[in-house]
Amino acid sequence: MAWNNEVLNLFEQLSQIPRESGNEKTVSDWIRDWALERGLEVRQDDIWDLLITKPASKGYEDHPPVLMQAHIDMVCEKDSDSDHDFSKDPIRFKTDGDWIVSASGTTLGADNGVGVAAAMAVLGDKDLPHPPLEVVFTVQEETTFAGAESVDVSSCKAKRMINLDHADERELIVGSCGGTGVIFTMPLEREGNVPEGKQAFLIRVSGLKGGHSGEDIHRGRGNAINLLLRLLENADVSIVSITGGTNRLAIPREAEAVVFASDAKALQETVAEAEAVFRKEYGQAPDLAITVESAAETGAPLTEEAFRKIASAVRLYPNGIAQMNGNLEGLVESSDNIGIISTEGDVLTLTSEVRGAYQSTVADITKTIEALAEIMGAEVEYFGGYVPWEFEAESELRNLAVGLYKEMFGGEMKQLALHAGLECGFFAEKIPGLDLISIGPDCQYFHSPQERVSITSIGHFYEFLKALLARL
Predict the structure, then answer these.
(1) Residue 63 — φ and ψ, nearest 5°?
(2) CA dist 464 to 95, 172, 224, 231, 443, Å?
(3) Pairwise CA distance, residues 269 & 423, whole Å
(4) 73 is catalytic
(5) Where in the chain is the domain with CATH 3.40.630.10?
(6) Cross-strand partners of 181
(7) What phi and psi values does residue 229 have, to the nearest 5 degrees?
(8) Any idea of the CA torsion for 359, 364, 369, 371, to the nearest 10 degrees?
(9) How far is the C-alpha of 341 from the C-alpha of 350, rounded, in Å?
(10) Catalytic residue among 24, 141, 142, 336
(11) pLDDT tens across 10-19, in order?
(12) Candidates 3.40.630.10, 2.40.160.50, 3.20.20.80, 3.50.50.60; CATH matching 6-177+388-471
């Protein structure tokens, strides 16, 4: 498509290059070459983070420098009937009124592709007034935070930073949570033989809305893993396998189980009853469905005791909101999301994402998981930890941004802390005294194939960013 907005043009070019977390070399090289062609100074590290610097525009040479930051990777989720290959296929755009969505049933990558494109547009604009710029593009934000954790900013002189990874143009983010990925593994036992006289079936829960495991955890969208386990507890079946979810950062939209049953009609009735109950509970998910179909035999089922252990573990594992924030009304303070379940071989694996506004509340949830593991004879492994960005009472950058937004758009810019992990905390640790804000255009349904971004809002966001830089 041809857009009359340079941010959209760059975002669409960026989306032609696969950029799943851990697979960022090609897109990093493309951005590097793009910057070098424009005479900008570029440093690329060995995991493909980028630091790009641009001299001040005329008249701004004596102004203090500004750091801008965004991440180049994306969450790769798709509908079950999509044949998109994230390792090689580009993300195709289509429009739905004012919204841009994926044309192939996948995440769009506006998180954080629009932020990357906005920073590139600033870097490429020869007429834009601005102070000296230091732009950091990080990798693996959606998985391990390895980019923000390891990027070397010791040469950076900026004491002011604009993160470009938010999803509402009317909001100014002034803090974000910390967290960690968790892998919980528990040994299971199986029956010695495939049961005789029973038929194998595949039961699938689908059609839930899913969403971001932090920003949408309070929206009551339902976790397909929990719903499947609730159904299986009431079904007269032997369990062969349970799988569900694809990413710890996404609330699971689908989950399935292979089972053996001797009475197909009774199984269908149990499934129909469960579907009716769940549809009532989750009326906001009109596509919610539970299907049953014949399955090829896939080996011996789990013992009844093994399934009881699975059901108990999932019921007792922290999942959903842990507590609300007592200082900021309506904000989730801490949570956990079971994003993936599998029973491969003789092991149950649960993969989750713990989030909290403070390291102490993250630790509180992980201690609960460790207590459960001790009771259940399981093991716990942590990965991808990140630090919170704690709210600072005084901020010149924040005050300037709020005043400028009112001047430009006539409304108040709401200041809030985010129940999601931004990379800002890493930069606050690396650069003492750093004054931080985070902004972005209107995006919805992150980490799901329904992800979309507003064309109009991208224009507002970019005009605001340019005006803000001109004031710094």
Answers:
(1) -75, 145
(2) 24, 12, 39, 50, 16
(3) 48
(4) yes
(5) 6-177+388-471
(6) 353, 383
(7) -65, -35
(8) 140
(9) 5
(10) 141
(11) 999 999 999 9
(12) 3.40.630.10
Confidence of residue 1 (pLDDT cuts 50, 70, 90): low
- Residue pair 164/73 in contact (Cβ under 8 Å)? The answer is no
User: Would you list the DSSP string of 15-77?
Assistant: TTS--BTT--HHHHHHHHHHHHHTT-EEEE-TT--EEEEEPPPTT-TTSPPEEEEEE--B---
- Separation in Å, CA 206 to CA 160, 185, 296, 325: 45, 25, 21, 32
Write down the residue that tokens 């900026």 correspond to: 158
Q: What gap in Å lies between CA 155 and CA 431, rounded to an integer?
A: 10
Residue 2 pLDDT: 64
Q: Which of 20, 24, 73, 215 does the annotation list as catalytic?
A: 73
The Cα 19–Cα 74 span in angstroms is 6
Q: Are 114 and 146 in contact (CB under 8 A)?
A: no
C-alpha–C-alpha distance, residues 372 and 379, integer Å? 10
Residue whose structure tokens are 């713990």: 354
Write the CA distances from 20 to 41, 148, 189, integer angstroms.
Answer: 26, 16, 35
Q: Is the dihedral of CA 305, 308, 314, 318 positive or negative?
A: negative
Per-residue pLDDT tens over the stretch 92-106: 999 999 999 999 999
Active-site annotation holds for 141? yes
The reported pLDDT for the residue numbered 287 is 94
Q: Alpha-carbon distance 414 to 168, whole Å?
A: 10
**What pLDDT score was predicted for residue 330?**
84
Q: Of the ranges 30-34, 78-82, 175-179, which is most confident?
A: 30-34
The CA-atom distances, in angstroms, between 24 and each of 48, 86, 88, 104, 310 are 7, 12, 12, 21, 36
Give 314-339 pLDDT, tens digit per residue: 999 999 999 998 877 888 999 999 99
The conformational region for residue 309 under phi > 0 = left, psi -120 to 50 = alpha, else beta, is alpha
